[in-house]
Amino acid sequence: MELHGVVYDKAHNDFMQTLLCNGIFDLIAYLALIAGVIAYSIKPAFNDTILLMAFAAVLAYLGQSMFGIDSIMVTPLFWLMIAIVKNRQIAAANGEIAT
Length: 99
Prior knowledge:
This protein is mostly helical. Helix content is 68%, strand content 4%. The longest helix has 22 residues, at 24-45.
């Protein structure tokens, strides 16, 4: 989109950007992943400090992604935090972490 001689090529909302560039099915998959991480992390996060910190980082990224453009420096950290959250959930379920 061009306005006043300036070309805007990114939405300032990660969810809208995903919808417009990748389609509704990709947005649904992305939201399902995020919903799954949130749903399964809320209760165990209060008993595991590392999980709580990673969960807080995921929520902080989601908050900023509503109003900003994803950054090549920050987005990989988001996916790393998702992996840490999932790892801690699996370890707690297997009894490897005292909860």
